[in-house]
Structures
1.
Amino acid sequence: MEAKIYIDILFLINLCMNYFLLWMTSILAKRRKKLLHLFGSSMMISIIYCLPFFFERMKWVHSPFGAMVLLWIGVKIAFCPKGWREFCNLFCMTAIVSLAIGGICMAFFFAKGYGDMLGRGITTTIRHFPFKILIATTSICYVGIKCFQGWLEAHMINQKDYCTTIVRVKGKEITMQMLIDTGNGLKDPFTGNDVVIASFSAMQELFSRETKRIFLQKTMNESELAEYILQEEREIPFRFIPFSSVGKKHGLLLTFRPEQVTIITAKKKVERTDVMVGIYDGQFSGYCGLVNPDTIQNT
């Protein structure tokens, strides 16, 4: 039996698989990218992958080296990583997801008796592509990655980086250790400024005794708290911005603009006057807040 693949079907399959691959990487790496970025990257990879069928000189694209180049292009376009460390983390995670999908697909191919197709070679004309296998392997890979997401994040993605953050406001300097976290992409919707998130316990010296009690005992709901702070805490120009987090789709975050925020990492020291500080009413584990890497890079 001659295996034939039509080029349009091949392009469509590549587009869907590349999009799924980049989408899974964005979830695991906690990179909130617009779907248009992922689609554009997937489209570019798929176009390049199909070019060797029209141009003999580009057959190298289907080699292992070509696969690495396509992966490199996909990560660059989809995530626009800043720095080699971030790029390598995203590249490795994308490669792991790709190998997982490919390995499961190969297993199904041989289990279903399609393995001899690979031995004879596949031409550019496939009429009977096993779409059930494509759907099944994609679903299994998705479930498997979701099940092991915690382990992957702990051992392969989140090599946790911390920084010392100093917030200067009204003559006071508050120093705290924060986690550099790509998952914190919060921006002030009115100014577009980055928002550094700090726990209330780290910032409590800015508030009156009564406000501390209300925060800690949670005696008011969100709207009542917002009204109270705006009326009673007038020394610092607080305001609330909308935000969403795990378990809370629509919430309000108390923020203010300090005189200066200084962020000190192992490699650099950054001083910003255009960064907002958001005050989280819960606790973090082992650190006092969250800083997005872009806040450190965009200086």
Note: Residues 25 and 94 are 6 Å apart (CA to CA).
2.
Amino acid sequence: MERPVKDGILYVQHCKFGKRSWRKMRAQLFAASPSGVARMEKFDVRDDGTALEKTSLRRCARRVIRLSDCVSVGPAGTESCPKATAAFYLTTTEKSYVMAAEQRDEWITQLCQLAFQGAKEAAQSSARTQPSPAVPMEENSLYSSWQDLTEFPVLVVRTDAAARCGLHGHYLLSTLPQSLTLKDPQSRQPLLTWPYPFLRKFGQDQSIFSFEAGRRSDSGEGTFTFSTPRALELCRAVATAIACQQQSKDAPDPRLFCAPDPQLSAQGLEPQPWGPGAEEPQPSPPLGGAQPTSH
């Protein structure tokens, strides 16, 4: 008989008609074994106010999260949580969860061990087959792959624009250097692309990221809203990409300047930029934080 490596009470955040609420559940973590895969099992509970060991539990349909599908786990510090708890997120290839627990760090540590230990052991086994490097090296605990930094699992929140484009369910939203791209979560094929100059506005609120697309976008104009525990990180990535694109746009082209002429220098004249409006270079307009050029 399988025994859970961790057993306790969790609160799972639900969103219905735009209103967030917390559902109390009992959760159990199981390690991979001949009897089953590494997973989290959740059950609805009814608490009569007694201690955890004597809590009155009413088991409903068992909900299972396969930890092999886990993409990321981490603290979610901006959430308003039930008393004496702290929030964390659990993102899989199928869905993003926001949960809260009294021992949040213990849950995060145990989830990471069960979800990612197999991949780590495989990497270590592969490393043992390679010749040892001449220089001692240490693992970088801050390492993140390029996809970790640019791809965000999201859940579509229904809007008129999303319904018009037939969007529903889970996707990957990728912050590329030139555009914001929506991808299929399995094949990672691009489905919709919004060049940054075609975004009128964008912003986030807790676990919600939203932007307004201009009429020149492939999707047409309208507001698109996504739920993700990494909403703040996603919003910052978009702002950074727009700022970089704006800086590249404002950088002077060296071809617009004349080559120095010794005769002009001898007369005290300096080479001048040529081109329309070059006499008095105008300062570039401020980015405005979350309002790229409207199209």
Note: The chain has five helices and 14 strands.
3.
Amino acid sequence: MSRITTAMVSQNALIDLQKSQKVLFEASNQTASQTKATDLKGYGSQTHTLVSSNRMIANIQSRIDNAAELDARLSMQDAVLTHSREVMEDLRSVILQDISLSGPSSIDAKIEEAFLVLKDSFNLEISGKSVFGGTRTDKPPVVAASVADLVANPIENAFEQGAQEQTVNVDGYQEISLAPVAAEAAEAAFDMLKTLAAGGPYGELTDAQVTALKGELAQFDTVIDGLVQLEARNGNTQSRITNAIERQTTQVNAIGATVGEITYVDLAEVAARLSNAQTTYQASASIFNTVRGLTLLDVL
């Protein structure tokens, strides 16, 4: 017959108390953190899946953040392209008005204004890098100093830029051109300003100047239409980037949901376990406190 001592009873009660403490501690931690474990070791065979998934989320989120910056850049590009088109439309309106009305012309001033707007627009920099400089981003692509400089030199001398457009990968496989090079986008507009300025100065318009200006009006449609097409292209690029952001955000959410299924606890289930653990702990503590003071005399 096995002998039972008060020491054995106390030891068993202590072991039960320690077990209930551990269960209570784990349930309390899971309730507070809402995760199943405090570190990767706690996930066992699912650790590799978690590490891979979190790395994938980080990579995709980085592309989303970069795409969001590109979206802001394209909004700025749209603004300068719109302004360039508007200043050329204003110049055409001034020419039409001055051809129709007698008196001093304001064409010279409008040409100067259009030149400055176009130069500033296509020399746009973001974070110190030229937007319309193609692959050469270290300096402004429009180098003509003035309208006079434009008139005195071949039109190609007005630009210094990279030969190719800047491209970027926005989603891991899709290459997108960000902006045309300045010469492609603005050469026709600058060439028109060069031709108009060469026919000046314009004070009281002469018959020869009126004839020459009328001949240039048709070219305005080509120049303005080219700028409109650039605006449309910019808008299309912006739509593609927006779609890439939305598509990748869906990916991040889907992977995040998978990670959540592995790491996050069922709060209702944990609450039930915590309640049970608290009850068990209280019972174990009560038993331990009772048996700790027992001796064989109490039993006998």
Note: Helices lie at 6-33, 47-100, 107-122, 147-152, 182-198, 207-263, 267-292, 296-299.
4.
Amino acid sequence: MALIGVAIVALAGFSSAETPDDYEDKGTFYSMTCRFIYAPSDCNDTADTVEWDFGDGSTAAGKIVDHTYSETGVYYVKQTATNTIGTSVAWYKVEILGYPVISYYVNGTLVKTVQQDAYGVAAKNSGIDGVSAWYTDRGMTSAYDMSSYVTRSLSLYGSSSNTPAPAESQVTVTFMDSEGNVVKTVSVDQGSRLSVSDLKDMVGKDKGMILGFYTDSEFTTVFNVAKSIDSDVTVYVKYGSDAGTDDYIVIGLAVAGIVALIVAAVTRHPIVILAAVALFAAAGIHYFGVI
């Protein structure tokens, strides 16, 4: 379990809709469960009541509370402390990474990844035969104690006369909206591309149609959905509710182009055909920022 000190700590064993401008970053935690501890900087400012909003729709009250997140991600936690003098509000940012993952390499080849069931417990059995000892470095000079507690993801190295078959590595693509909420996560084979089904089921309530996919939350760099995915990546989904003037210009040009194309198909008039092509070209040029 992760302790958060306010204090915050991981307990052995996605994103807030409201993002504050001023918060204290408490860091990352290899756990799903955290303990939140009310810790005033001034002992004279002791609160009578302390309420917590964990940023995932859950709340609790108390000076020491435990909370388990259902998904990994960044959360903004709101602490409201009240006494006879008044009320004080503080915000804390936590990033929940999930339980640690151990990557096992045999003869220099990744053969297996194992995710722990909890934070701060001994490493799970790798199930790999023929390896007598594991090491924390590729040169295999620093032995790893398999009974020690695992508090973060790590790589372990071993040797064997028989090299096991390489593991099929997968990477995670996390789709988020402009408010930092996780819309969808998909796992794909490393080096493969996203499929059509990977891009489905992401229409949010009251968000409108999907206008595009981007590498940043400001929607300045388009994400190429056709490129191969080699590592974990976060993709930001732009919805109709996020649209600005430029987006409506592009949509208007595209719609006009479609209408002109239909008319051209009926009349087969060369000028109408040229007009349709010009409208589509203008939409594309404007979309990619040339005009």
Note: The longest helix spans residues 245-267.
